[in-house]
Amino acid sequence: MREGAAAAGLRAENLSRIYPSGEGTVTALAPFTHTFPAGLTAVVGPSGSGKSTLLNLLAGFDRPTTGRVLVDGTDLHALSEAGRADFRLANYGFVFQSHNLVTILTALENVEFPLTLAGVPRKQRRERARALLAEVGLSARAAHLPSQLSGGEAQRVAIARALAHDPRVLLADEPTGNLDSHTGERVLALLTGLTRGGRTVVLITHDPEVAALADHTLRVRDGEVTADG
Amino acid sequence: MGNVNGSDVWGLAWRGLTRRPVRTLLTALGITVAVASMVVFLSLGEGIRKVFTAELGGIGPDVQVSLSGFSQGFAPQPNLPETAVGDLRKLAPELGLTAVTPVVMAVRGSLDVSQSAVLYGLPAAQGVGAVFPRARVASGRALTAADEGRGVAVIGAKAAANLHLGLGSALNLNRRSRVQVVGVLAPESGLVDSFIFLPIRTLQRAEGAEGRVSLVALKLEDPRNARTVARTISERLNVEAQTQSDFLSFVERALRISDAVRFGISLIALIVGGLAVANTVMMGVFERTREFATLRAIGARPSFVRTLVLTESLLLALVGGVGGLVLGLGGIAAVNAYTQNLAGIDAAALTPRLTLLALGISLLLGLISGLLPARSASRLQITDALGRV
Ligand SMILES: Nc1ncnc2c1ncn2[C@@H]1O[C@H](COP(=O)(O)OP(=O)(O)OP(=O)(O)O)[C@@H](O)[C@H]1O
Ligand SMILES: [Mg+2]
Predict the structure, then answer these.
(1) Which backbone phi and psi does A13 adopt, to 5 degrees?
(2) pLDDT tens for residues B205-251?
(3) What is the pTM of this model?
(4) Which residues of A touch B8 (CB under 8 A)?
(5) Domain presence at residue A22
(6) Do A89 and B294 touch (CB under 8 A)?
């Protein structure tokens, strides 16, 4: 709020993560500052370079060694554990590589789950969840449990869930990593469509073809982050 | 926990439990058996309380005089000198006593409980009605003054059935003495049903207790004076005089102690059941670590996860507890069928307070068992639990 123009959107300031390892330390992420613009940012880099570490910090799953994460001016890591949970619920959507869904809930219930957490009345959240499932083309699978869905279907349900409360920021860690290329394309098409309305989508990927679809690219190598494009 | 609706949490907890229906069912069964055993054990005390308040509250003597009070139990030894009867009769006008009835009690023991009976000797001239005014003769005749010292008996309906006695049957009091049944009382659904009434001299002789009685039953003009009268008698004569409420509080004290013992026994079952719940809930948490991490990632607070796990534990224990009440009812019915047959009483009863206790204990069990799993679930680190794929 005090930050003026810099306050808008998702911003990493002097952000780093150093893990203790044996007698020494591992710099999983060296300090870097970056403002994520609206639109799709692809985070690319070889395995073990620090991509997931970056995403965990942006999401508030992990604490940074230095620096901070600002979302519309709010310092994510200055919040309490519960406060951060509430903040995620209100501002973030997530899609992981796999096992995204709550196994005891149907596809529809999974999609409405963020709204359940927010205390939205059942009828209202059902309606919204149905609309979102329709958007990802899975109306026919509403009553299926995650174990009864294919990998691609599960990812599409996860995307629908990530959109349940229309979040500012969408974080995805290799959402197509476990999918064949055809199914992956379908999921990607959905994700690239989500940048409308000034939403910030951060997508971690190994795949250069996927990265080519992005508006911006962030390269990570041995924990060093560089922006291009 | 945030804004989540309570009903949504219960629904989620239910889903969590029914995910592994067999394991959940077996665990609930553990609680069911534990709670049922507690219910049956404690219902015995409740039933006996009811019997005593209903029975003796209505028809017992207003004041009962004996040498050493109730501490000896229900049927005191005949150790009170019969001279006390005369002393009490002398006090009768002053204290407003309308009836002074000496009583000798003895237990006709047997290895087979159903063959045991209480022998109750009282002056034949005064008859059974002197102490139990509701007693009615169903067949044969009542005791009369002419029966004093003779070998005759009037018996309760239950005693007749259990000992296979009818009018004219012979009954051995012990090896030396036998009497003949001259009357059978109508069933009263009470303790009296299993009593055998004898002329006092007959029983004194049989027990070798000539000149001594177990107690003296007093009826008062105004039963509200019972406490004052009892105190006066205790002070003037070297005896214990007690009122009905003294007797009831004695019974209550004895029942409390036996409640504690019986609860202690069922506590073992309850603890084992609680450990089973803790184990099941903990396993559920371990198996769903990843899932809980996903919930936390999406935006569930740690307290939501804690509440969810605790609710699962409570729900599991509650289901087991309700099952335990139902099973316990069956057990109580079985106990009562047995004691009805034996003594004409319902020894066991499921009272509202026992129902509440059983449910309360179940919930407490669920709460305690759930604390540790809930804590570990709420503390999991999202990054660790989401893990590498
Ligand atoms: N909890 C941890 N403790 C110690 N070192 C860790 C921990 N988590 C990650 N690392 C290390 O940090 C580095 C970056 O890991 P990270 O998971 O961010 O890589 P990544 O770019 O996501 O790789 P991948 O493409 O294989 O998923 C790796 O060297 C990893 O071994
Ligand atoms: Mg990774």
Answers:
(1) -120, 115
(2) 998 889 999 889 888 888 888 888 888 988 888 888 888 777 778 77
(3) 0.75
(4) 116, 122
(5) no
(6) no
